[in-house]
Amino acid sequence: MSFISFNSCSLNHSNIFINTNWSYHCWNRYLAITTLRRHSSSVCRTYSHFITDDFLDLEISYNTEVNGVMRKTMIHDI
């Protein structure tokens, strides 16, 4: 397994703007990317990318707590 990290990755989609640190974990056919921290937000969110080995299938998910209810949202093809 390899480990790579970089700062200030930005995502802008559907009025969601993320500027955060990412951690890369590579294994087998998949690359999973998970945030280390979310800056300047009172709402806790977890973001993940899952990219197949051909790097064409990109899937982003995040969990957001709204009024005590956890909601999972999938964002595709960014």
From TrEMBL:
Protein's recorded name: Uncharacterized protein
Domain of life, per lineage: Eukaryota
